Structures are given as structure tokens and as C-alpha cells.
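Input (structure):
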């Protein structure tokens, strides 16, 4: 599957506490985060996203860890990698670097979102922040990238 057709999936997970499981298909696995408050469409919101274990792609619509509780699909679709604008960074490297920007084409979530790793940890897990990008600014920077030699 090409990166252009990679899928994303957001599930509501009714476990001990309600949270959202956010998964992006990257290089043959589903890179996953647990987002306590869920994604926001407001660029002013910074949502905590705790990195969880990568899951197998063939379990893209399952919680691969067999976690307790009820999972329901909240949104799904495809995404494009926008990381790096005019000097594109492959998704697997962007995840390792701790910063990525993706354009989501879902039913609820459309537009550009960024995931940025912070230098704090929740136990052994990485804390990231999930933020909706200002789409006009993101589109303009994409266009600027296309125009640059
Ligand atoms: Mn979960």
C-alpha cells in the first residue's frame, strides 16, 4: 500500500476510563496513541496523546492488545503525510523524530493535524500532543512548497 492510501482509525474505548484509540498505518504497522479527551477540531486545543504499542495492520479495526472494554469506531479514513512540506519526511522517520503532520480524510476529522512528542513521559510511555492545524496556513505552506524550485 502506498503512503497516499494509508488509513487512520479512531475508536472510542469504553474501558476503566473512556478514551480514544488513534491509529495511523505507517510502514506496515498501526502506530497508536491513547487520547483521553479525543481529537479536537479547534486549533486552540492541545490534546494529550499517549503513545501505545504498535499494532498489526490486519488488526486495524481491532484493539490488538485484547484490552478489556467496548470499542466502537468513531472515525476512519485515509491520510496523507504532510511532514516536512517541501522536504518531505517519510512517516516512519517522522514518528521516530517525534513530529508529524498528516492530512486526514475522514467523516468527522478532515484537515491537517500534527502529533508532537513532548519530553515528558507517562511511566514508560511517550507523551505526545495532538493539535488541529490551521488549514489555510497549512495549505498555503503546501502551495509554497510546490512553488519552490
Ligand atoms: Mn484503548
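Output (sequence):
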Amino acid at each position: 500500500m502506498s503512503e497516499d492510501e494509508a488509513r487512520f482509525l479512531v475508536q472510542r474505548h469504553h474501558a476503566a476510563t473512556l478514551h480514544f484509540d488513534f491509529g495511523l498505518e505507517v510502514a506496515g504497522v498501526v502506530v497508536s496513541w491513547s487520547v483521553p479527551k479525543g481529537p479536537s477540531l479547534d486549533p486552540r486545543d492541545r490534546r494529550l496523546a499517549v503513545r501505545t504499542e504498535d499494532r498489526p495492520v490486519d488488526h486495524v479495526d481491532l484493539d490488538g492488545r485484547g484490552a478489556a472494554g467496548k470499542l466502537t469506531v468513531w472515525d476512519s479514513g485515509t491520510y496523507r503525510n504532510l511532514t516536512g512540506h517541501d522536504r518531505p519526511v517519510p512517516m516512519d522517520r517522522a514518528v521516530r523524530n517525534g513530529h508529524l503532520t498528516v492530512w486526514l480524510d475522514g467523516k468527522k476529522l478532515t484537515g491537517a493535524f500534527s502529533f508532537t512528542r513532548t519530553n515528558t513521559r507517562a511511566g514508560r510511555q511517550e507523551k505526545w500532543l495532538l493539535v488541529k492545524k490551521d488549514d489555510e496556513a497549512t495549505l498555503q505552506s503546501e502551495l509554497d512548497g510546490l512553488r519552490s524550485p
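Notes: The two ends are 29 Å apart (CA to CA). Residues 60-64 have pLDDT under 50 and may be disordered.
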